[in-house]
Amino acid sequence: MPLLEVRDLEKQFGGLKAISHLDFTVPEKIIFSVIGPNGAGKTTLFNLLTNVYRPSAGSIFFQGRDITALPSFRIAGLGITRTFQNLQVFLNMTALENVMVGCHLHSRAGLISAALRLPSVIREEKKVRKGAMDALEFCGLSDVAHVPADALPYGILKKLEIARALAARPRLLLMDEPAAGLNDTETMEMCGLITRICESGITVILVEHNMSLVMEISHHVLVLNYGELLAQGSPYEVQHNPEVIAAYLGEG
Amino acid sequence: MKRLSGYYVFALVTLALPVLFPDNYYVTVVGVTVCTNIVLAVSLNLLMGYAGQISLGHAAFFGLGAYSSAVLTVRYGMNPWLAMTAGTMMVAALSYVLSRPILKLKGHYLAMATLGLGIIVHIFFVQADQLTGGPDGMSGLPALRLFGYPIDSDLKWYWVFSVFMLLSVLFSLNIAKSRAGRALAAVHGSEIAAQMLGVDTAKVKSHVFVFSAVLACITGSLFAHQQDFVSPESFSFFFSIELVTMVVLGGLGSTFGAVIGAVLLSLLPEVLIVFEDFEVLIFGAILMVIMIFLPQGLFVALEQTFFKIVRRKRKEPADAAA
Fold first, then answer.
1. Does residue A218 belong to any structural domain of this protein?
2. pTM of whole model > 0.90?
3. What letter would DSSP give residue A105?
């Protein structure tokens, strides 16, 4: 059974079809990249998978379960989480606290027990702190744990978002342009980080414009153009597909 | 216990004041007002400062607590504690039912909705005169008894209010550094990111709305018994705005910010009385100056200055050694 299955997915904004008749499956424990020219519908696809947008038609199955109409937080609860193209870091917290929010699903304390600071809350808090520190360390961010997020540079925030997502211990991680705006060294680091995430057993769906990064680390590449599936296959196959070349370089 | 060291100092000062100045009007009488405002500001800060959800109708819940105690004890002869419990449960239920539709709104729309709520409740206090006594209000509440002893002096009331206030402040501080508090801050920071991490944002907002309303409601009940009088004036739209001002002035999102805002706004009028006719003008001017020069709020500004000094002090010996 594939981890994720998308069937005949469609999204219309007024008269514009952002995604039309999209079918694909994602097997477990691979890096699955989605590429395409600007406006091809890549971010829209992520928003459909996490139900930020409700699909106009079609359905999405995760581990065989229909998640098309589930609210976002429930989808997260099943094991899908994501990072954002335009950063959505909690700037009102420290780096560590950001990642601790990532542990939300794996802790229970509510408002009342927190107000009374019951012993169970204190124990859980220690566990959460440890889980968050582990995720920070995995992303090489231990040093900045106690720095307020709004004082951190862009490259670090990109990694922080990933650490936060990892703290939620997802089965599937959607990464929206993790290398956008990074310099060469940072991009190299990001490459290594994504590979290590996949090796740790998490399936990654990657949307990225940096082609050398995509071709280097992906196991499977899907090409979107005007919301439609143009081609898919191994990085080599996609790179040598005439239709893909035409879409990227323009016909003629 | 570094986390709560500031709190212990604050608690000690609060509890020492009446021991040091037992018969001082400012401690026992003004002190009760200050404590009332602190609880209200701290509870509003949970909603506004932590979760980022504005409310311009917080006085409504304060008023509902006061009136439910007054009506149930005076009109129906209910035991004061029972009346308080009934009122609290009613407000919890009401705020829960209201929270889901209201908190779907954001920004200005949420402000409008809570404003409407505050005004509707106020109109109810004025208009339902058979029940509430209308604009004249109600008096003659029975004495509140604690362990069989009536709370019948200013000093005793100070103890009741200060203990309740200290508990509320402690709750608020505890929530800040907890899973629930982080979920609230996450809603404030980015609602969509919070959802992607599995936070049920609608539930989190609804819970904090109810918690905040319940704290305000209990304060209202105590206030009604302490004043032995309730009238719609105390729970008007203007009081809601004053509470928002306290929270913003002290520093949005900080419990002690709300405390300082509440203390300042409660004491300033007392101090400014010497200016007689110009009292309100000077009061307004002070608020404007603070907000222009310390937009992040008094407490946050003080805190930052304090840490800057500490860091410089720590650096100096190191530099000297080098």
1. no
2. yes
3. G
Q: What is the mean pLDDT of residues B184-209?
A: 96
pLDDT tens, residue by residue, B59-81: 999 999 999 999 999 999 999 99
Whether residue A193 lies within 8 A of chain B, CB to CB, comes out as: no
B269 part of a folded domain = yes
Mutation target to probe the A interface, by most A beta carbons within 10 A, among B166, B178, B210, B252 is: B178
A72 touches chain B (CB under 8 A): yes
Please indicate, yes or no, if residue B118 is contained in any of the structural domains: yes
Residue A219, in any domain of the structure: no
A108 touches chain B (CB under 8 A): yes
Residue A188 is assigned to a structural domain of this protein: no
Task: Report the alpha-carbon distance of residue B269 to residue B286 in Å, rounded.
Answer: 11
Average of pLDDT values for A17-30? 95
Count the domains in chain A. 1
Q: B273 to chain A, minimum CA–CA distance in Å? A: 38
Q: Which chain B residues touch A165 with a CB distance below 8 Å?
A: 196-197
Contact check, Cβ <8 Å, B189/A89: yes
Residue A224 and residue A192 in contact, taking contact as beta carbons nearer than 8 Å: no
Would B287 be classed as within a structural domain? no
Bridge partner residues of B230 (DSSP): B138
What is the pLDDT confidence band of residue A252, given thresholds at 50, 70 and 90? very low
Q: Provide the 8-state DSSP code for A170.
A: -
Query: How many domains is chain B built from?
Result: 1
Q: Are B65 and B285 in contact (CB under 8 A)?
A: no
Question: What domain range includes position A97?
Answer: 89-168
Can you give the CATH number for the domain in which B236 is found?
A: 1.10.3470
Domain that holds residue B221: 5-279
**Min distance A109 CA to chain B CA atoms (Å):** 6
- What is the pLDDT averaged over residues B184-193? 96
CA distance B218 to B46: 16
Pick from B188, B192, B198: CB nearest A168: B198
Judge whether B316 lies within some domain: no
Residue B253 burial (CB count, 10 A):
24
pLDDT tens digits, residue range B239-264? 999 999 999 999 899 999 999 999 99
A111 vs B contacts (CB less than 8 Å): 175, 180, 207-208, 211
- Token pair for B238: 């203007």
pLDDT tens digit sequence for B37-57: 999 999 999 999 999 999 999
A19 within a domain of the structure (yes/no):
no
Q: Using an 8 Å CB-CB cutoff, list chain B residues near A94.
A: none
> CA quadruple A132, A136, A142, A144: dihedral positive or negative?
negative
